[in-house]
Amino acid sequence: MTGSYGRGLLHLAAAVDQVGVFDAEHYVELVRLAESGGLDFVTLDGRFGWAETDPLAVLSQVAPATRRIGLVPLVTAPQTALAHLDQVSRGRAGWWSDAPAPSPGHPVRVADATEGAARRTAARYADVVLVRAASSAQAADARDELRSRAQESGREPDALRVLVSLLVDLGDGERAAEPGHGGGGPRQTVQGPLYRGGPVDLAELIAGWHGEGAADGFHLVPAEPRRDLERLVNGTVALLQHRGLFRTFYPGSTLREHLGLARPAGQFAAP
Questions:
Q1: Is pLDDT at 2 greater than 60 in this prediction?
Q2: What are phi and psi of 159, to 5 degrees?
Q3: In 10 A of CB 179, how many CB atoms?
Q4: What b/e sequence results for 227-247 when a residue is b if at least 16 CB atoms lie within 10 Å of its CB, and e otherwise?
Q5: Cβ–Cβ under 8 Å, residues 163 and 129
Q6: Distance between CA 53 and CA 19 in Å, rounded?
Q7: Strand partners of residue 25
Q8: Which residues make Cβ contacts (< 8 Å) with residue 47, sequence separation at least 6?
Q9: Does the model's pTM come out above 0.70?
């Protein structure tokens, strides 16, 4: 399934989108919660509100209220403001786009490459690739393909991080995952693969898939942001930390350091 490619550190990220919420302070609360769990980065799409939220503007306001976690807004094209976010966050910015390319400053480039047609571009330009997969075998196939395409493009495959993007509904608390959702794997829905169950089984799923080399990590999209992110951090992440599978502190200060990626010359040093 995973060819000869090795397994590295586990990487975790979370979406912090909130329907109908436009006040940056509400996002600060969620991002700080994610940071308390040592997550690599958070994403903000901005297309889920009653009116469109500007994710770049919101995360630029979040940056001074956080210290370590990466901040990745969905941005359709490189903007000077993206370089500003990277500057005010001291190297914690990422750029999420379906068509990654060179960008101003040094933000980490994140791309969704679930569809096969997007994988060639993502493998050539992206630092982090998100794929939606309903099984470890499906995730491993996508990771292998992306790494192979990266190598064909003259890139070092180990410079690419492939994260499985999952919708997570932790409303069942400590109850076991429903059949077909958790222990047996996520269930495919029109919105993408969905895990529904408790934090314990989610930790088992994450540890299992990563241990098999199917993914470098996970991008988790909470069904109910406040409830599920709290259960994710205090339950799932705490269990992974207890088992020595995920960091208990940030060893560096930039998003590239969190992801184990080379830092371009001139990028910000730790404060």
A1: no
A2: -90, 5
A3: 11
A4: ebbbbbbebbbbbbbeeebbb
A5: yes
A6: 10
A7: none
A8: 53, 74
A9: yes
- So what's the pLDDT on residue 104? 58
Six-digit token string for 148: 């192979």
Two structure tokens written together for 214: 């199917």
| Cα(70)–Cα(30) distance, integer angstroms | 13
Position 92, amino acid: R
Sign of the torsion formed by the C-alpha atoms of 163, 121, 103 and 105: positive
Q: Give CA–CA dist 193/66, Å, rounded.
A: 30
Distances in Å between the Cα of 134 and the Cα atoms of 43, 109, 166, 184, 192 are: 21, 24, 8, 10, 8
pLDDT of residue 116: 80
89: left (phi over 0), alpha (psi -120 to 50) or beta: alpha
Q: Is the pLDDT of residue 172 over 80?
A: no
Domains and CATH numbers, the chain: 11-259 (3.20.20.30)
Note the pLDDT of residue 33. Answer: 98
Contact present, 98 and 120 (Cβ < 8 Å): no
96-141: pLDDT as tens digits: 987 766 665 678 999 999 888 889 999 999 999 999 999 999 999 9
DSSP string, 25-45: HHHHHHHHHHHHTT-SEEEE-
